[in-house]
Amino acid sequence: MSPHAVPQQQDWDELLASFNVTKHGFLPAEEPLKSLPDAYYEPWEYLICNLQPLLAERTLRQSIDTLPVLSVDKLHTEPEWRRAYVILTLLTHSYVWGGDNAAEILPPPIAVPLLSVSSHLQVPPVATYAALNLWNFASSTGDFTDVDSLHSPHTFTGTRDESWFLCVSVAMEAQGARVLPSILAALAAVPARDYATITAALDQLAACIHAASALLARMRDHCDPMVFYHLIRPFLAGSKNMAAAGLPRGLYYDQGDHGAPSSWQQWRGGSNGQSSLIQLWDVVLGVTHTSDGDAKGNPHAGTASAAGKPTEDKSFHDEVREYMPGGHRRLLEYVGRCGSIRALAMQPVHGADPDHARMQAAYTNAIRALTEFRNGHLAIITSYIVVPSKKPWLGAGSGLDGGKQDDTADRELTGTGGTALLPFLKQSRDETKVCGELVKARMAEVRC
Fold it and tell me: What's the domain range around 269?
């Protein structure tokens, strides 16, 4: 389809489906599988279902080392490939961070099938947002927007805190699905200046973002900040920018004698920055970001991806599209080629044009909603990372943290995606806010 073609209303669902977007948005159409149907994969299922006791007993690494290298040939459906990815990436992070020291080498029983599964799904061989959130949830009601009905079948800690932390994002994704058709309709309406369609979509988008903000604020209901910071967060770390934690070269994916060459790779850990939904809001509203997310002077900033592509010229938001499922990434690219609502909102109005003025007001309202969402995210980060980083942990140690107080006084706080946390989030918030301010300034010029 031409990037400038305008589909008919009844074709929106078909268009979204071509990018693997469902009635639930970037979530699958049905709940993820609870187990792989072929008994051949029972060794994987045993490990993922006994993850917490194996970690507690410090026997997980030995259990993985002695696994057979299973073929992926018995994975037949996309839900099966996705479950395999969830299992293998969670086992990867558990293997790396589930000991006294980080493990630099991922052995063939995990590395070989993980690289094949990741290639099939067009995602990196690391626990991405897709593995942790999009493909790792269950609902007791079938309403994926109802966070109280959701739980994550597989977590590192087995705590309600971790399940709640993951499922808040699942509910936000489902909430966002409701406005995807209207967003596409608005973009298609830009060339014709169909202000009514665009304004209605912007109003719906603002309401959707407010609903997502309300869900984000519920993080505090069942996820304790100290539990998150000291027990959960260490397992979410990737292999990029992790020299201080014991991975100066990243993670070595050992292929053994299974054909493909082994390699050192560096990948960011899973984070909400990898959400296609949040990036879609930015693209639709014309918000652009420039930060690479890395701390100044970080020797690992700008390293090449596993595919050999240099990342130094990419913003963080562009880079993490590599972490999104292929279809979702392509939807963002498609939307980016469509008409720009921001450009239309910035155009001068000659004479009285109340429809244009209403559209501009709706645009600034949507920008305000997205700015408030990012302010809410900053508040969550303060509660869950900044404040706990300054407090000693008195609970039982686990994983990378080992029960020790973090020495954040000597280094900059980073997010689970490896970003220089507060500066990056504040810049993203400010880059959002300025879009609304520019349109407001144009509106003021017209009134004069």
Answer: 9-447
What is the signed CA dihedral for 113, 258, 242, 280, rounded to 10 degrees?
-40
- For residue 401, give the CATH number of its domain: 1.20.58.480
Distance CA 123, CA 149 (A): 28
Residues annotated within a binding site: 377
When the pLDDT of each residue in the chain is averaged and rounded to a whole number, the result is 87
Q: Which tens digit of pLDDT belongs to each residue from 35-47? A: 999 999 999 999 9
Q: Domain total for the chain?
A: 1
pLDDT tens sequence across 117-161: 999 999 999 999 999 999 999 999 999 999 999 999 999 999 999
Q: What is the pTM of this model?
A: 0.89
Binding residues for heme b: 377
Would residue 154 count as lying in a domain? yes
Q: Output 305-312 pairs: Cβ under 8 A, ≥24 positions apart.
A: 305/266, 305/267, 306/124, 306/125, 306/263, 306/265, 306/266, 306/267
Pairs from 111-115 (Cβ < 8 Å, separation ≥ 24): 111/253, 111/254, 111/255, 111/262, 112/69, 112/255, 112/256, 112/258, 112/260, 113/69, 113/70, 113/71, 113/72, 113/84, 113/88, 114/85, 114/88, 114/89, 114/253, 115/253, 115/255, 115/260
